[in-house]
Amino acid sequence: xxxxxxxxxxxxxxxxxxxxxxxxxxxxxxxxxxxxxxxxxxxxxxxxxxxxxxxxxxxxxxxxxxxxxxxxxxxxxxxxxxxxxxxxxxxxxxxxxxxxxxxxxxxxxxxxxxxxxxxxxxxxxxxxxxxxxxxxxxxxxxxxxxxxxxxxxxxxxxxxxxxxxxxxxxxxxxxxxxxxxxxxxxxxxxxxxxxxxxxxxxxxxxxxxxxxxxxxxxxxxxxxxxxxxxxxxxxxxxxxxxxxxxxxxxxxxxxxxxxxxxxxxxxxxxxxxxxxxxxxxxxxxxxxxxxxxxxxxxxxxxxxxxxxxxxxxxxxxxxxxxxxxxxxxxxxxxxxxxxxxxxxxxxxxxxxxxxxxxxxxxxxxxxxxxxxxxxxxxxxxxxxxxxxxxxxxxxxxxxxxxxxxxxxxxxxxxxxx
Length: 417
Known about the structure:
Elements: H1 5-13, E1 31-37, H2 41-54, E2 59-62, E3 78-79, H3 88-106, E4 117-121, H4 124-140, E5 145-147, H5 149-155, E6 170-174, E7 178-179, H6 182-195, E8 199-201, E9 206-212, E10 215-221, E11 224-233, H7 239-244, E12 253-264, E13 272-275, E14 280-284, E15 289-300, H8 308-321, E16 330-340, E17 347-350, E18 356-360, H9 370-383, H10 397-400
């Protein structure tokens, strides 16, 4: 089933009775060439690019719940490529290019909106850091533009520019950045993978990984054993738990990141805005709700909910940056489980077990990385060679200390990245 303007018009005039299911609901086979554990954005994108780019079809994606039910369905939908460190900058630049062609590629409306992202700064030192980052972004081949307070006042008149504590000195805008519909991204990749012969198995929880003589042989699930030549772990905040089934201890802590959405309002925030004096960011959805988030809860947890002190902290940042938000009613909040690495950068690599591959450690960058992650991970699985934009995301950097990518200069503290 392909979407087209004519098809949508025809269905609208005939009662929408001609639509078919977006993907099959197949029974799990006894054996596959490749088993992907995790049916979120990264896992589905990996399956799609394995089939599309490498012609592989005997693939299963195993998801313990429903497709797209994890972090891909509980995030603040921001897409950007404003990274500075070598290794990160090339990867996110590649991912942004894939975002820009995603809807044509998938023949699916992911509601990708390049509305631009503004990162504010509030001191001379922050201005210097922002200029340095902007130059690095431009040198990478992406866009960045320095904005003066006068330009910002015209663009974003509702911000608190004259706060004695956090005066706004200016900002950097990346106009190609923006947002996308998180669920639609998962659905688009699921639909694309299924149409190329990939089996998407829902409600199939992996309970063990079978290994013999240092080589992966398959997985154990609540639907029985499945043989596989290659197994890929792509489970975000559950990475340590699943890797532990193979006897692997990962340099990851799992933390909860809360996000919030308000009642629907008239269109007022037409950019993504990042506060420079706190980990706060905000945008407005197409339905009118203000979508915003902030810092991690500073303790390890696998619970998809957060604590009240961090809720208060995020609300304080919102009020400091844009006092008008105080009149908006918060409808709901949720928590995503972040797989945090010591340097704040991800892992896409082979493990010491032959045929077992790992994709994790995305910290805050998981949603914006979905297409680039799937593309690079598929390349690694299919060829056993690292894809150049993701060549720095090696697991052994945490053992050797060589090649660490500490984007924020925070040091080896998971919960501060």
